[in-house]
């Protein structure tokens, strides 16, 4: 059982990644972003997930520096993730994009760098760049985002290093069981973005009933479901009480029956783009 916010999963290269982190998707640069990340660090979060396309890496970097100082912890205690955007998928352009992200974040290295989307004809060159960055020690782990099974199979045919992480949309309406099993088989850690389905699950009567049973919020039930499924998760919030609440999931456990009830909510329904049919 995962028992604390500092608990980690060990990636296939031995790097330890926190099970729970904070995401900052679409949070604009400014005081709200800085405050949210600092609150998270203060209350024990050790994983922060951003991306070039979010256009908030500078603010995240500021929050990290201030948050580390105020919490009295070191950079090495944090796990920072960013991602290369579609327009930069190419060998040299991915290297340049990584350096730009590193500069904006004000860091010497990243803990995890991901290919954001599986753009056909481009992600193989980008992966070669990630392998180079990994070998150079500029990033501790490399992975992908929004990759389906067939994307992973194509990538691994020619890859020298297989992905350590695959970050995908995952929630009770999109359980991704086939992908989860494939990643487990190949030692690729599955990570959920939009785990709360951007708030669309809060009024679900089945989840509300389970939440009432455990005297928890629907968000806490979903996050706990993720963790018990062995899925790293990065719920987004800018509100301090929500950030704290989202992390208060380590003192209870869902029964097998309730896990199965939540699994049964799956409709293969996405709130984000379909990785097999997207246009950016």
From TrEMBL:
SUPFAM superfamilies per the UniProt record, alphabetical: NAD(P)-linked oxidoreductase (SSF51430)
Domain NADP-dependent oxidoreductase: 31-266
InterPro entries cross-referenced by the UniProt entry: AKR (IPR020471), AKR5G (IPR044500), Aldo/ket_reductase_CS (IPR018170), NAD(P)_OxRdtase_dom_sf (IPR036812), NADP_OxRdtase_dom (IPR023210)
PROSITE patterns hit by this protein: ALDOKETO_REDUCTASE_1, ALDOKETO_REDUCTASE_2, ALDOKETO_REDUCTASE_3
UniProt cross-references to PANTHER family, sorted A to Z: 2,5-DIKETO-D-GLUCONIC ACID REDUCTASE
Protein name in the entry: Aldo/keto reductase
Species in which this protein is naturally found: Ornithinibacillus xuwenensis
């Amino acid at each position: 059982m995962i028992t604390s916010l500092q608990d980690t999963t060990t990636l296939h290269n031995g790097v330890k990644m926190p099970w729970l982190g904070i995401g900052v998707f679409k949070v604009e640069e400014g005081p709200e972003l800085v405050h949210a990340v600092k609150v998270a660090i203060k209350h024990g979060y050790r994983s922060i997930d951003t991306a070039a396309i979010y256009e908030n890496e500078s603010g995240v970097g500021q929050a990290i520096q201030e948050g580390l100082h105020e919490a009295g912890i070191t950079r090495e205690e944090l796990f920072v993730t960013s991602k290369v955007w579609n327009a930069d998928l190419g060998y040299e352009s991915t290297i340049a994009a990584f350096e730009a992200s590193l500069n904006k974040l004000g860091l010497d290295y990243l803990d995890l760098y991901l290919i954001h989307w599986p753009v056909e004809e481009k992600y193989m060159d980008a992966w070669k760049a990630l392998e180079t960055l990994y070998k150079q020690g500029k990033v501790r782990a490399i992975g992908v985002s929004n990759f389906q099974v067939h994307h992973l199979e194509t990538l691994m045919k020619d890859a020298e290093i297989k992905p350590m992480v695959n970050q995908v949309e995952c929630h009770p309406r999109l359980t991704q069981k086939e992908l989860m099993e494939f990643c487990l088989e190949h030692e690729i850690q599955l990570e959920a973005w939009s785990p709360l389905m951007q708030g669309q699950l809060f009024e679900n009567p089945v989840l509300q009933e389970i939440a009432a049973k455990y005297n928890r919020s629907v968000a806490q039930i979903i996050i706990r479901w993720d963790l018990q499924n062995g899925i790293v998760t990065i719920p987004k919030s800018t509100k301090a009480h929500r950030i704290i609440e989202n992390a208060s999931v380590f003192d209870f456990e869902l029964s097998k029956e309730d896990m199965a009830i939540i699994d049964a909510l799956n409709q293969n329904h996405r709130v984000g783009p379909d990785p097999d049919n997207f246009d950016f």
